[in-house]
């Protein structure tokens, strides 16, 4: 089988991603169709997407899982590659995907792909950040995104195989962006759970220390230099904030 008989469509969701969407779109020129679902960009994102050959559809923001499902439902290609605006498909991955879908058994409806993240100008290979396998390439009609407020997942009805070449992930625009995400995610976590007493905050101190040890020592974040240290510290801070914000709901 060849690419013509096993088409690949790209599904991307955006809002104000003008500084990085071009890199992603350039990396998926191999695809048969590219669809961008935008929820109201005001920075020129839609214009650059159209200029680079993508079809742009507006959809009011319903949440991550629902928006990604809406995007996936618009794709007509046999296979759908779900991507985020801060990602990039390596040339090696493009070749691997084309071969994989062309030779996929009928029972195989999805492929998980490793993701290699760049943070503070360094590729992060430790601390639990790599290989960070994500199911992203699925056969049309076989899969559905969950509605989880945090960390939505793509569930596949059928067998899933692993690919070896990575998606490049340009995670966060800097430390401030990282902290904003931690604050937003810990808010959502606390809002979705019941309030907790002061003992829960004390437990959060212990959990934060454990998280730091896990990221920096056990999962070898120390080998990623200063960025690895910052990741470990921010990961432990996120754990503590989740505990503290649940307690805050009780005062």
Q: What's the rounded overall pLDDT mean?
A: 96
Q: Give helix % range.
A: 25-40%
Structural Rg: 19 Å
Distance between the termini: 63 Å
Q: What is the makeup of the main sheet?
A: 7 strands, mixed
Structural category is alpha/beta
**Low-confidence region ranges:** none
**Main β-sheet, spatial strand arrangement:** 3-2-1-4-9-6-12
Order of helices and strands: EHEHEHEEHEEEEEEEEHHH
* Strand residue percentage: 15-25%
Note the main attributes of this structure.
alpha/beta; 7 helices; 39% helix; 24% strand; single chain
Write the layout of secondary structure elements.
Layout (H helix, E strand, L loop, with lengths): L7 E7 L6 H7 L5 E6 L6 H7 L3 E4 L5 H11 L4 E6 L2 E3 L1 H12 L5 E6 L1 E5 L2 E3 L9 E6 L3 E3 L8 E3 L2 E4 L4 E3 L5 H17 L6 H21 L6 H24 L3
Parallel strand pairs: 1-2, 1-4, 2-3, 6-12, 7-13
Antiparallel strand pairs: 4-9, 5-13, 6-9, 7-8, 10-11
Descriptive account of the structure:
By secondary structure, the protein is of the alpha/beta class. The protein contains seven helices and 13 strands. Strands 3-2-1-4-9-6-12 form a seven-stranded mixed β-sheet, with helices on both faces. It has a four-stranded mixed β-sheet with strand order 5-13-7-8. It has a two-stranded antiparallel sheet with strand order 10-11. A hairpin with an 8-residue loop joins strand 10 and strand 11 (154-156).
In short, what is this structure?
The chain is α/β, with parallel strands linked by helices and 251 residues long. It is 39% helix and 24% strand. The strands form three sheets. Strands 3-2-1-4-9-6-12 form a seven-stranded mixed sheet, sandwiched between helices.
């Amino acid at each position: 089988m060849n690419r013509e008989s096993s088409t690949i469509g790209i599904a991307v969701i955006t809002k104000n991603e003008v500084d990085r969407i071009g890199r992603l779109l350039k990396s998926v020129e191999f695809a048969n169709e590219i669809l961008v679902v935008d929820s109201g960009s005001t920075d020129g994102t839609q214009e650059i997407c159209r200029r680079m050959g993508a079809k742009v559809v507006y959809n009011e923001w319903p949440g991550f899982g629902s928006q990604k499902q809406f995007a996936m439902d618009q794709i007509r290609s046999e296979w759908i590659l779900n991507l985020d605006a801060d990602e990039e498909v390596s040339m090696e991955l493009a070749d691997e995907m084309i071969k994989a879908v062309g030779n996929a058994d009928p029972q195989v409806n999805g492929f998980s792909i490793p993701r290699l993240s760049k943070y503070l100008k360094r590729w992060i290979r430790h601390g639990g950040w790599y290989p960070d396998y994500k199911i992203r390439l699925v056969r049309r009609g076989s899969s559905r995104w969950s509605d989880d407020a945090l960390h939505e997942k793509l569930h596949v009805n059928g067998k899933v195989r692993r690919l070896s070449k990575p998606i490049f992930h340009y995670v966060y625009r800097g430390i401030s962006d990282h902290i904003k995400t931690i604050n937003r995610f810990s808010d959502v976590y606390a809002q979705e759970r019941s309030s907790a007493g002061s003992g829960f905050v004390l437990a959060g101190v212990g959990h934060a220390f454990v998280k730091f040890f896990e990221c920096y020592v056990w999962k070898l974040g120390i080998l990623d230099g200063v960025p690895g240290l910052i990741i470990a510290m921010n990961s432990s801070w996120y754990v503590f904030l989740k505990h503290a914000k649940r307690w805050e709901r009780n005062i």
